[in-house]
């Protein structure tokens, strides 16, 4: 894929932790970048693999940090899983391993949450996971019920260190059943298909911005959209030499991305009209 000019990007998909903020701290240049997107008439969507929280939670967090976000500005892997299933079996019966936030998300999309003859078993980042849930899920999967996971992250970073995430729970179920799930979230293409359906922006004018090579940047490569790495989170410059996937662009943070985007826009305005 030929690298697209920044000026041609009309919709930016933004990772949050490590890209827009770090824990509870806003990262430098984040608000300036968002203001420039609005000023230049561009769209955006915050994109997260975390399916334990709702879009409402993230909208409130971003608003408290200074950016007035609405729930429709955020897409979680949980909502992406709902959109994926709705395209295949609207009003399906689902056995869900998830938090109350994820249960509410699935209910709002019209799914029936039940262990009685479900059409799908769906695993999210379930901080309310119990042995009974695991036993029921494994029994259903062994019986042939399709297995879906919202995202593949093995660990979730917290202020107190890593905690087991959806990917670790997936490995437990796969070891017991011999069945691996269809995964929705980054770096898989299904989450970008959900994004494109939600934004109505073509892939050729969409870019993903994030701090992780193996999720954010790999998503761009898998989905054929522009990938932009920021070095404000997990990935450092020293990691790039041995990386299995390379971003289209690299910037220190969203502030320096804003400067490059503005410069590219100015250059675009100076180009002679052809025709």
Description:
- It is a single chain.
- The protein has 275 residues and is α/β, with parallel strands linked by helices.
- It has two domains: 6-49 and 186-270, 3-Layer(aba) Sandwich (Rossmann fold), CATH 3.40.50; 89-183, HAD superfamily/HAD-like (Rossmann fold), CATH 3.40.50.
- The protein has nine helices and 15 strands.
- The strands form four sheets. The protein has a six-stranded parallel β-sheet. It has a five-stranded parallel β-sheet with strand order 7-6-8-9-12, sandwiched between helices.
- The longest helix is centred in the last third of the chain and has 17 residues, at 254-270.
How do the strands and helices of this protein lay out in sequence?
Blueprint: E1 11-14, E2 21-22, E3 25-26, H1 30-39, E4 43-48, H2 55-64, E5 74-76, H3 77-88, E6 93-97, H4 100-108, E7 112-113, E8 120-123, H5 131-142, E9 147-149, E10 155-158, E11 161-164, H6 166-177, E12 182-183, H7 189-199, E13 206-210, H8 213-223, E14 226-230, E15 249-251, H9 254-270
Parallel strand pairs: 1-4, 1-13, 4-5, 6-7, 6-8, 8-9, 9-12, 13-14, 14-15
Antiparallel strand pairs: 2-3, 10-11
Helix pairs in contact: 1-9, 3-7
Quick one: biggest sheet?
6 strands, parallel
Order of helices and strands: EEEHEHEHEHEEHEEEHEHEHEEH
Number of strands: 15
Number of domains: 2
Distance between the termini: 26 Å
Strand content: 15-25%
CATH superfamily membership of the largest domain: HAD superfamily/HAD-like
Keyword list:
Rossmann fold, alpha/beta, 275 residues, 9 helices, 20% strand, HAD-SF_hydro_IIA, 5-stranded parallel sheet, 6-stranded parallel sheet
